[in-house]
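Handout, page 2. Input:
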Amino acid sequence: MTAAAASLAEDLRALAPALRGRVSANAPLAPFTWFRVGGPAEALVSPADEDDLAYLLERLPPTIPVTVIGVGSNLIVRDGGVRGLVVRLGGKGFGAVETSPDCRVIAGAAALDAQVARAAAEAGVAGLAFLRGVPGSIGGALRMNAGAHGGELREVFVKARAIDRAGQVRVFGPADMGFAYRHSAAPEGVIFTRATLQGRPGDRAAIVDEMERITAAREASQPIRDKTGGSTFKNPPGHKAWQLIDAAGCRGLVVGDAQVSTLHCNFLINRGAATAADIEALGEDVRRRVKAASGVELEWEIKRLGEAK
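Output:
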């Protein structure tokens, strides 16, 4: 991919000479994922801000595929890497969090969910503490209607801004998002840049206590100190994925250096030397075993990108 990557990066610089963000050819993506696995991006761009992103997309030919990644918490990048342009939002341009007197929180797409929960707590805004238990960033939370500990993003969502492939700003309200369990119906071709969330007045100390309880529950029940991607499979209707996985005898199951967590068996972990292929193969083995044992077909919650090596 190296020669093609260099060519694409050069093309991007020629197409968008005033781009302020960084463009990298053949850029490793593994360091940006919580699993720490996967191949490179043909070209990786980190736009400076929303205007910079719009400028790039306006000039980008539609034939060049665009993939967006956040903090990589719920992501497997396959070992062969990702062709085309990978956009990674971050920094001051996309990570700011603001609160208002009417208990609204405006968060950049790159803001960590936990960071948004903390900002809300500091401002005495209740209703967003559940975000403390959601790994990842607001952009990903919008895409999958992220939720934890009895809360979901759709319950606090007001609107979101995004840039489409033509470089135009678009605004999405609740009806446009089509939220469902771990799902959003927003078009795949748009890149979210920020969201407005609605909380309610609350007591700061009580909100902080709630967040501390969520943190303690996560640490006690999930392998958050390991290289993992969070919950691997969605809960099927009427079932809990971890119970199905446990009942199928998959707790501790190993493929290569990937393992089903013994602490919470809806988590896969990289024990240190796993490849993306190991992790994905382990997940597919779990799906086969659960289907054979229970007749229930598990659906991946973790997003998988790129090509096999």
